[in-house]
Amino acid sequence: MRLDNKVTLITGAGSGIGRATALLFASEGAQVMVSDVDEDAALVTADMVRKSGGTVGISIGDVTEEGTAARIVQQTITQFSQLHVLVNSAGITARNLPSDSKPFDVWRRVMDVNLNGTYLMCWSAVPEMERAGGGSILNLGSIMSHVGYPPQFKSGFNPYPVSKGAILQLTRNLANDLASRNIRVNCLAPGFTETSLTESLTKDRETLAFLQSRHPMGRLGKPEEIAHAALYLVSDDASFVTGTSLAVDGGYLAQ
Ligand SMILES: NC(=O)c1ccc[n+]([C@@H]2O[C@H](COP(=O)([O-])OP(=O)(O)OC[C@H]3O[C@@H](n4cnc5c(N)ncnc54)[C@H](O)[C@@H]3O)[C@@H](O)[C@H]2O)c1
Questions:
Q1: CA dist 68 to 44, 120, 124, Å?
Q2: Residue nearest to atom 23 of ligand 1 (CA)
Q3: Mean pLDDT of each 10-residue bin along the chain, 255 residues long
């Protein structure tokens, strides 16, 4: 198994890509710490992992709070003694926020969860990975780490692509610094994927057809397809891979 005895902490594990990743990692022998701000959702994922025969712990909290991010890492250490892998999958889009939110409040919250939350989790995890002799961090970027939203979205002031672009730069910067400490840092760049994050878009048939047409493969991704790429990047199969972004996007970025 590819993650035998690896302690893996996954934020945003209550849903979508984080949940699929938790299930796949557990099936590959990892001890999985499921973390999410949504307790009910985290409990469901943990139950699914347990029922599939995996080893699991839970830590609830909002990754944008400095003390909470540190606590999530410490609870992982308390439960499993070490930390080898961190997957930062907690993330939101402007669509997650109330439609009457002020534009700058939307900007601040999306940057806070996507970028600052990723930073805080990395900050607390790195010393523990060093203590374990090395590790691997995987940040959820996006195709929007590389390109802006299509003009049809009419959303030039949307913070999401900006937050994801910054995550790629955080990934590169950390990778350069941490390589000598045996910690690899990479980024995944999924195309539009069928999760609750995109539900409000995909339930509209016209928008769904538009999004499908933007991907050369003519469809959206599935969370399990993203999880398989995550497994590759955090496992020893990718032992010489750091500071990079892997597109899992049905060809979106190839155009
Ligand atoms: N679905 C897509 O099309 C897509 C494409 C590219 C990248 N991504 C990225 O992948 C990651 C996972 O997205 P998903 O599609 O699985 O979304 P999702 O909405 O299904 O899951 C995200 C999870 O993050 C949790 N979360 C939100 N804010 C949090 C906070 N402050 N602290 C802790 N947990 C928090 C949510 O409760 C939820 O369980 C995100 O970073 C997203 O930006 C998604």
A1: 21, 9, 10
A2: 12
A3: 97 99 98 98 98 98 98 98 98 95 98 98 98 98 98 95 98 98 99 97 96 98 98 98 98 98
Q: How far is the CA of 3 from the centre of ligand 1 (A)?
A: 23
Question: How would DSSP label each residue in 169-183?
Answer: HHHHHHHHHHGGGTE
Pocket perturbation via mutation, ligand 1, pick of 43, 92, 168, 200 by most ligand atoms within 8 A of CB: 92
> How many angstroms separate the CA atoms of 225 and 236, rounded?
19
159 CB within 6 A, ligand 1: no
pLDDT digits (tens, 9 = 90+) for 148-174: 999 999 999 999 999 999 999 999 999
Which domains are delineated in the chain? 7-247 (3.40.50.720)
